[in-house]
Amino acid sequence: MSYGIESVPVELDPNSQAQKPRHAEFSRPKFLKLSNDDVEKGRDHFTREILYPGNGATKEPLPWNAGYAEVINAGKSDKNEDQSWIFAGVMISESGSKQLRPSKEYMGTSLAKREDSIAVVMFGVCDGHAGWGAALYVSKVLAVRISERLEAIKHFLFKSIETGSELIYKSPDKAYAPGDVIPTEMQETITTENLVTGVLEECFRELDDEIRRSLSTYDITGGCTCLVVLFMLGKVYVANAGDCRAILVRKKKQGGYCFEELSQDHNPITDRQRVQSIAYLQPELLGQYYGRLELERRARKKDVEKNEDGKPTRLLFRDAYMRGWARRDVTEENVNKIPMVIGRDKRARLLSTIGTTRGFGDHDLTCQSGMYIKPFMTSGPEITVYRLTEREHTPDDVIILASDGLWECLTNKEAVDSVSGTLAKFLVDDPMRYIQTAVELVRKARGESTARSWRTPNDEFASMDDISCFVIPVHQHMRAPKTLTSTAATAKRGADCSDFIDINAQVINFQTSNNSSEDLSQASDMNILIEFESSVQSLPVDESNV
Amino acid sequence: MSYGIESVPVELDPNSQAQKPRHAEFSRPKFLKLSNDDVEKGRDHFTREILYPGNGATKEPLPWNAGYAEVINAGKSDKNEDQSWIFAGVMISESGSKQLRPSKEYMGTSLAKREDSIAVVMFGVCDGHAGWGAALYVSKVLAVRISERLEAIKHFLFKSIETGSELIYKSPDKAYAPGDVIPTEMQETITTENLVTGVLEECFRELDDEIRRSLSTYDITGGCTCLVVLFMLGKVYVANAGDCRAILVRKKKQGGYCFEELSQDHNPITDRQRVQSIAYLQPELLGQYYGRLELERRARKKDVEKNEDGKPTRLLFRDAYMRGWARRDVTEENVNKIPMVIGRDKRARLLSTIGTTRGFGDHDLTCQSGMYIKPFMTSGPEITVYRLTEREHTPDDVIILASDGLWECLTNKEAVDSVSGTLAKFLVDDPMRYIQTAVELVRKARGESTARSWRTPNDEFASMDDISCFVIPVHQHMRAPKTLTSTAATAKRGADCSDFIDINAQVINFQTSNNSSEDLSQASDMNILIEFESSVQSLPVDESNV
């Protein structure tokens, strides 16, 4: 489990509770191309109709024919608080951009052959809670922030293609003799993979801060978890903050399927040591009702008072630094404290309030006793990197990326079985192959409506939560996504438009015009063309509150 | 990397700098049975003679014929600041103790057949720095503290043997329906393995606190890292705080050797995120000269001032929450700060001072600018558990447990090659087999003295540090160590002595007489017979300072 850490002072605008405009109208993912009728159907908590790209008004495939499906919750919130997004773009090298005039045909060929462009494809799922504001905001902005930061390091990336080495900095390979002075300058080895990892780590944290600052201007309700799967240069970077999950499902050569987890869930159980560590170092954050320790049972006043043997009761406990359990005398400070982590599995809660421990938003969230919860949460993601090029992948290898609504009802193994079963029913080039695989996963987790509740085929509780699920085939990862129409963007850029991809999702062209590749301080001034929803494009941040 | 954490207020007795008696006389491990001549030879920094059990005055094998060798440093400190220790004992069940009268023969047979006794064997290496006091203290006391705490949980351990289940607590297996109240009582599953892990975690931290408190009475110099390998009930528990290392070397069925790391080194590089996290949450601990961030180079005043483009310089940095690297504007607070972690590999230093980040002691250690270093260090160990019973082990499978003096010159692979080479030269029952394997490892790391310095066969710098190395065969793990004489202890216990093992190391008999197995609050009052060096046995703690 990564460090992540948190506990920044909660500095909210005193006017943050005042009535403010929404930062955007509620919507479902643009790439679904839903008609108004579809949107209405998808809002029904009783029928819980499954939405997918194929049942939208316009049938346009997702990148690599990726599959997707979603369903609303069974009534726990009015809106579907999950938000999914796709991003596809191409970075053009400084030198390449001068000559490059790619045609549509080019965009369909392998980018691996080209040294002057790098395809970037991202899939993301945000799972909102206590409102849909944060999830919508993150789904519209995070990819742009990531693309901006990738643009700022692209000369390193192109250089690594040119030189065939990912190394961008290596500490001097010197054998120190005893007595040598220790150098205070950096002694690290840095690769392009470290830089991309750093881009994701910084973007998550900066965007969360952006949300906090925006609260003085806009109503951005609740919080959200977020998982991003980024394909670039033969690698998959998975950045996770929360309890969405991505697994790689792979067909074995000898038959049968296996899987690898590409992320670890962050919840009060898995992230316990991090949240306890923060309370260990800043105990005042817990207030008077909560206690840092897990205890085998609630400690009572009489446990401290002398027992028959004249000694206090000893209880099993677990502290921040422990994976094991030990016994300790009950003291006054343990008495009647509610453990900061309670509950089991999906019912585990931090400060009796929230079931996830990482993500965006929640800046004003308090527990019943009035203490802020945000200092224990972090937007710091855990990054895993999977090297696609180390193995041959077939059209039967997919990444499942889904919100916890899916995973609370399906084990990884059950999801794999479902995927393999559906994939077998379709030809590899059927445009509905991965969509139906996603639909089937969602259907299994949602179950069917019965007189009592939503039940699985085994008559267990099915998921009452929002469910969102991508099924992404990975064998085409070195191909740029298929290009489609690009009227809007071309119109804006006019004759300067040298490269563009529109996959009916969020769209960006990475090419910059006057940006020296050496001068990273200019990154924020890049002339990036973003074809974006106007509600986000026009979102100002109140600088007085920065 | 485990959380560990730290930053307790440094509360030292104001008189701690006053002249106080040593807590014990300097000595080498008792199990070496060194004559005064041997001790003198071992102190010579110029010849650096290798000491091992076989060259001692008395030839008595270690448990399971384990191997051991040590050598002093090349002059960096007057004394050998490493301290190694062995502990062997048997826990007797409450019910069993009433009837059990084990003979010497019994002690040589497999304990796996007996349900009323549990063999406990520990090997430990402490690597001292800035004095030998802490290492000696820990080597004499830690095993006793661990055995006391094991005694306090033994009824769980015996119950697990009886029932065949390691489970001691299981949360109710209830399917929660949406809307159910979240229980605030413990919802965990706890096994005996969790308890033993907790014993080790607590003992490390408590002993470090014991050392801090003892400083008002005794002169306990410096600090030490520590690694404990504990064999019990078919498992190996490895508890590590610092940069000693244990690896399991295993001969493959198809020939050749492989290895598994049983511990992870803790140094300013591997433990960077933990120490940065503490500075992140308690920045005042760094003082004015140190900075939390790693930066690609020292930030200067002119980096903050406007560059030609009117903006500050952007430098690569890495913060507590990052595994990757990103760029950030240089700000005033970065200027001229020394990174809290500097240097590379074995030369990495925390606050320019210390090369390890976990261990015991160092309570009064400050860096040059006067800031305490202890708040960034932790005695919290990282525990790994290896299940010996999941695999068949042969006499060619060993655990190498050594101080960093060995590992700074030998890679794991080189150590494995050395081990396999030496083992092949001896019959499996040769009493010198594992000893010579340890000697050969130490010889390779120490190298040979040349005109210039100690050099390896490849003419590279050899280890100038103290080196201590156990080579422990694991195939006999279910056998109690061979029993030898037990005069001293028998004499003390008289007719009550029902069970005893003396392996010429530190010795303890776990049996208690009047202790209810249910009443753990009595644990500290146990009637434990400890045959111990008097210097430790009589060590009082100044209670006024507790």
From TrEMBL, chains A, B:
Alphabetized InterPro entries for the sequence: PP2C, PP2C_BS, PPM-type-like_dom_sf, PPM-type_phosphatase-like_dom
A GO CC term assigned to this protein in UniProt: mitochondrion
Protein name in UniProt: Protein phosphatase 1H
Residues covered by the PPM-type phosphatase domain: 94-474
Keywords per UniProt: Hydrolase, Metal-binding, Protein phosphatase
Family membership noted in the UniProt record: Belongs to the PP2C family.
Cited Gene3D superfamilies: PPM-type phosphatase domain
GO MF, one annotated term: [pyruvate dehydrogenase (acetyl-transferring)]-phosphatase activity
Disordered: region residues: 1-29
Taxonomic lineage of the native organism: Eukaryota, Metazoa, Porifera, Hexactinellida, Hexasterophora
